[in-house]
Amino acid sequence: MKQFTRAKSLSGEFIADLIERAHAFKKSKKYPNLSGKILGNVFFNPSLRTKLSFEAAMARSGGTALSLSSGSGTWAFESELGVRMDQDKPEHLKEAVRVMSRYVDALGVRSFASLGSVEEDAKEKVLSAFEEYATVPVVSLESAFEHPCQMLADMMTVQELVGVPRGKNFCLRWAPHIKALPLAVPHSALLAAAHLGMNITLAAPEGYDIDKGYENWVRSISHEKGATFTRITEPERLPEDTNIVYVKSWGAPSLYSTPARQQEELRKLSTWMVREQQLQRDSYLMHCLPVRRNVVVSDGALDHRNSKVIDQAENRLWAQLGVLDWIFSEE
């Protein structure tokens, strides 16, 4: 049974095939025939681009997307096994996922990291429950550690901006926020750049490292592609000839259990906000959105002619079409 849930496990060839489909749909403005197909999306966290792009993709292709929000209009779902369910979660995913599988042709699920501990987040309990109990294909709409749909859209966008990405320069640039955010997008953005064969620079303060397993995986792919991976910690420095500046905020894993300390440290790191002056003439700015203006990125940088965040967001629709075309095909 098909699943599009773990970006780290996808081969470069498979990813390239999905992106090729997405580019073809965008170029032709023709959509796959998904008439009669129903996609059921379950959201444990808010969404704008993911929710709307999947619903639009299904509607434009003749299918239907149904969206549920856990605990808002549905029962709150329990994912832990062996627990006494005497709190505020009256339905277990073990039943709910199997029931939903009887109603729809594929399931999507979004469940962010709890940011309680990296070790717990890495277990991906909600996503794993859908993978185990679903009897229809499953698509990750973002999990604790990955956002594979965002990864595809990012790869599409980079290809549109720089042509052949191999050998070009990609900088994942950390930025401050009002609170800690998960590692899913940083992990997926780095995997995207690595699969494209780009030279990667990870620019973030000391202590704001990505998961070591993902870093090693990214380094391995980069090495196979003949590309480089560099880590820097200076806020003002961007490598020369940077083609893509991908801005994203995330929390320090060592401070997950102390949110007050994390917020205090984020205030001290406000100089990491990305400004227009830091963009080189040929550097393109990317961000997955939503973005807090003048906290994460300045107005000048976001409104700059080289800011491509809207094009990047549009590509979520085309990337989703590529995934849906594969999910519902008989291949």
Topology, pairings included?
Blueprint: E1 3-4, H1 12-28, E2 38-43, H2 49-60, E3 64-69, E4 77-78, E5 91-92, H3 93-103, E6 106-110, H4 118-122, H5 125-133, E7 138-140, H6 148-162, E8 169-174, H7 184-195, E9 199-203, H8 212-224, E10 229-232, E11 244-248, H9 259-268, E12 284-286, H10 299-302, H11 309-328
Parallel strand pairs: 1-7, 2-3, 2-6, 4-5, 6-7, 8-9, 8-11, 9-10, 11-12
Helix pairs in contact: 1-6, 1-11, 2-11, 3-5, 6-7, 6-11, 7-8
Concise account of the structure shown:
The protein is of the alpha/beta class and 331 residues long.
CATH fold-level name of the largest domain: Rossmann fold
Q: What is the radius of gyration?
A: 20 Å
Q: What shape does the CA trace take?
A: globular
Question: What is the N-to-C order of secondary-structure elements (H for helix, E for strand)?
Answer: EHEHEEEHEHHEHEHEHEEHEHH
Total DSSP E strands: 12
Q: What is the distance, rounded to the nearest whole angstrom, between the alpha carbons of the first and last residues?
A: 11 Å
Number of domains: 2
CATH architecture of the largest domain: 3-Layer(aba) Sandwich
Structural class: alpha/beta
Strand sequence of the main sheet, in spatial order? 1-7-6-2-3
Q: What percent of residues are in strands?
A: 5-15%
Strand count, sense and closure of the main sheet? 5 strands, parallel
Residue stretches low in confidence (pLDDT < 50, at least 5 long) are none
